[in-house]
What we know:
- The structure holds 2 protein chains of 2 kinds.
- By secondary structure, chain A is an all-alpha fold.
- Chain A contains 3 helices and no strands.
- Chain A has helices spanning 3-28, 34-53, 61-93.
- The termini of chain A are far apart.
- By secondary structure, chain B is mainly alpha-helical.
- Chains A and B meet through α1, α2 and α3 of A and α2, α4 and α8 of B.
Amino acid sequence: MTRATGRLLIVWAALMALLSLTIAATLLGLGPAAPFVSYGIALTKAGLILWFFMDLRKDRGTERLAGFSAFAWAAILFVFLAADYLTRSTFASS
Amino acid sequence: MAHEEETATTENRLHGPFHDTARQHEADRLGMLVFLASEVMLFGGLLGGALAIRLLHPVDYGRAAAQLHLWLGGLNTAILLTSSLLVALAVEAVRSGQARLAAWQLRGAMLLGIAFLAVKGLEYTLEYRDGLVPGLAGAHLESLVHALFMNLYFAATGLHALHVIGGLALLGFAAASRLAQADRNAVVVGNIALYWHLVDVVWIFLYPTLYLARPS
C-alpha cells in the first residue's frame, strides 16, 4: 500500500466517523445547537473531500480559488437570506 | 511540422492554443472546477430555499423532516462516501500505471452509485406509501409548510439523483476507456473523479438540511 492510498483510507475512515457523529448528535438531541453541529460536521466532511479526494491541496492559487469560490458565494447568499428573515420582526415592531 | 506529429503520437496529446502539456492539464482541471462551482451555486439556491422555510417555520419544518427515513439517508451517505474513496483510489492507480486496478475500482464505484439509486428508489416508494408526495390523490400532508418541505425534498433529491445518473455514465466511460486509464496524468479520469466527488459533497449538505433537521 502506497502512502497516497493509506492517506485516502484514513480520510475515508474520518468521513465515516463524522457521519456516525452527526447521526449520534441528531439522536441525542442538542436543542438549538443542533443545526450548528450538523452543518459544522457537513462543512468538515466537505473540506476533507475537497482537500484530499479532490486534490485541491496539490493545486495552485487559481484552481483553489475556482474550487472554493462557489462556496464563498453560497455563504454570502445564506448570510443575506438569514439576515432578512431574522430581522423582519425587529424592524416591523419599531 | 515534424515536432507537431511527434507530440500528437504521445499519450498526452497537446491541443491548441497550448504550447505545453502542463499548462493544458491545468486548464482542463480549472475548466472542470469552474463548471463544478456553477453546480454548487445551483444547489445553493435550493439550500437557500430550505433555509428560508426553516427560519420562518422552524417547528413545522422539523416535524416534516422527522418523517423522512433518517437511517436510509445515512446509509446512502455511507455508500456515496465509500464510492468517492474508490474513485480517489482509481485516480491514484491511473497515476501509478495500474490501469486494470483502476478499472475495477471505477466499476466498484459504479456499483455503489447504483446501490445509492436503489436505496433512493426504496425511500421514494415508502414516501409514496406514507402519502408524503404532494399533489397525489393519496397525499395527506399536515400543513402547507409540510407540502413545501416535501416539494423541496423531491426537487433537491431528484436533481441530485439526475446528477448521480450523469456521474454513473461518466464513470462507465472512464471504466471502459483503456486510453483514459493509460494516461499517467489522469486528465480524463481525474476530471470525472472531480464530478463524482462533487455529487458526494452536494449530498453531504442535503443530508443535514433534509434528514437531520428533526426536532431534538
